[in-house]
Amino acid sequence: MIKSVQSYLPAKANVKRYTLVLLMIILGTGGIFSEGNAAYYGHSTPTFRGHSALMIRLQQKDFVVFCPADYAILSKTKAKVSPPKIKISLSIMGQGKLKASALAAFLHENNQAVSITKALEIAKIYIQESKAEGVNSDVAFSQMCLETGFLRYGGTVSSGQNNFCGLGVFNKKTKGLSFRYIRLGIRAHIQHLKAYASHKKLHNKLVDPRFRFVKRGSIKNVDGLSGKWAADKRYGKKIRYLLDRMYHEKG
């Protein structure tokens, strides 16, 4: 806590005041602030990198703050600390880094017709199903956003099919597979990703009808999905782009 020294220095003792400040600079330095700054901080005590400070009144509205080991000047402007950057993982297998709330916010912001409640439900299922199979939930979720147009659909697959990754769609005339529940559709998506990226057995019962047609372990990251999951040569780059946006726009 800041200890207040109530004794006033003589008004004419400018030399003494400057000597005191100079001494503070030599021993460890400090700073000067006014009562306006003190009011800004309320009754809480400013700290200086973990050290206690000594506050000495020089004039009616000015104080010298003396910190034995550090130098600091109090001001009304608080330093802005940039959040640490999260390195984007492009590996299909692995653990996602984003929470359900961040995934849901990303989906809702890009399609506000999807309520935040619905978006959160889907995001939680993606994380749960991905974790069960060891799949990167960030990759799976961003692929879902790409395949469905943030759940707008508009292609041959409709929302009622609970098909979140275009399973069974070979051209513009095929409607693709349908799943009875949202979780089953998401599970099929996760299982299909695992089929491409791993040789390990499934944790949950197989629900992906096209699992057996995949060459196991033939793809390790999102770039490998181009030309295999989809004919689009830029397919992997599009998922990269969505991943980058999700990581920078996370809530």
Helix content: 25-40%
- Are there runs of 5+ residues with pLDDT below 50, and where? 1-10, 29-54, 60-77
**What's the overall average pLDDT, rounded?**
79
The outline comes out as: elongated
Order of helices and strands: EHEHEEHHHHH
CA gyration radius, whole angstroms: 30 Å
Span between termini: 35 Å
Strand proportion, as a percent range, falls in 5-15%
Name the structural class. alpha+beta
The largest sheet has its strands arranged as 1-3-4-2
Major β-sheet annotation: 4 strands, mixed
Word description of this protein:
The protein is built from 7 helices and 4 strands; from the N terminus they run βαβαββααααα. The longest helix is centred in the middle third of the chain and has 18 residues, at 116-133. With 251 residues, it is of the alpha+beta class. It is elongated and about 90 Å long. The model is unreliable at 1-10, 29-54 and 60-77 (pLDDT under 50). 37% of the residues lie in helices and 7% in strands. It has 2 domains: 3-66, no CATH class; 100-248, Lysozyme (Orthogonal Bundle), CATH 1.10.530.10. It has a 4-stranded mixed beta sheet with strand order 1-3-4-2. It has helices spanning 14-27, 35-41, 100-110, 116-133, 137-148, 182-197, 235-248; strands at residues 3-5, 30-34, 54-57, 62-66.
